Amino acid sequence: MMKVEADGCGFPACQDSYSNTVRYANAVAHGGTTMSELTLEVGQANEIKLAARRAGATNADLKVLSKGDMFARILPVLRGRAKVVVSSILTLLRTVSIAVQPAATTSKEYFEQAGVKSMGQNFQNQFLGLEIAATPETELAVRKLEESSLDAPIMSELGEKAETSTSQFRAFLDANRGSQEWFIFYLRGKDGNLWAVYAYWDGRLEGWHVEAHSVEYSRRWYAGYRVVSRN
After folding, report:
1. What burial class does residue 40 get, using C-beta atoms within 10 Å of its C-beta: 0-12 exposed, 13-18 middle, 19+ buried?
2. How far apart are CA 218 and CA 196, in angstroms?
3. Any idea where the domains of the chain sit in the sequence?
4. Which of 8, 95, 180, 214 is most buried by a 10 A CB count?
5. Choice between 162 and 40, residue whose per-residue pLDDT is larger
6. Is the pTM of this model over 0.70?
7. What confidence category does residue 27 fall into, taking pLDDT thresholds of 50, 70 and 90?
8. Contact at 8 Å (CB) between 55 and 153?
9. What sections of 10-150 are H helices per DSSP?
10. Residue 217 in contact with residue 155, Cβ under 8 Å?
């Protein structure tokens, strides 16, 4: 987990690397504005801090951003005049066909029928008593996470295919009882937001353990975990 300590502008060594980064960016953007003319509102600094947290940035990353012409190189991307090509962190392993799923209102018994034996509190809060619509036959993709990652980069790579329906999640678990793999899904909870839901087969319970975390939570998933999404 990234450690971000609050200082005057929300970053360590605020008056050092971070302030210089912002001053340099302003100079580039306005054709030679001097460092002394730049001001940075606390609210703006906090927005950047939260964005850095979501992306899994470290203090070392911020220092790189402040060096040389790095900010000038990414400025065209920020202004929509260039695109970033990112190496994939997911490798496709297999696809799984999921049959038509009927509409339902979820319950403890609904998931127990798929082999779920243990549910975390967040999962219970968001996915019990959830009304779900019927879904057509669907093909899901199982991908290997090649490096540890927060949810944001995973969801960015998957795009709109990241979200899986709760009924498809249940059907997948039912068809993969006893698996030795750890699975990550992105499901929409009762609050209307996407949640990262993980599932693993607990040999002691002889069933699945499932739990949900907010995608804003700065938790890194380990390399080797399986990410399940629409294909």
Report:
1. middle
2. 12
3. 14-78, 90-230
4. 214
5. 162
6. no
7. low
8. yes
9. 19-29, 42-55, 59-65, 70-78, 108-112, 121-127
10. no
Is residue 217 packed enough to be buried (19+ CB in 10 Å), middle (13-18) or exposed (0-12)? middle
Strand partners, 135: 101
Percentage of the chain modeled with pLDDT above 90: 61
Neighbours of 134 (CB within 10 A): 11
Q: Give Cβ neighbours of residue 192 (< 8 Å, ≥ 6 apart).
A: none
Residue 183 and residue 206: Cα distance in Å, rounded? 16
Q: Tell me, what's the pLDDT at 26?
A: 55
CA distances from 192 to 95, 123, 211 (A): 27, 14, 17
Q: What is the mean pLDDT of residues 19-43?
A: 58
- Rounded CA separation 197/190 (Å): 14
Which residues, other chains included, contact 43 with Cβ-Cβ below 8 Å and sequence gap of 6+?
none
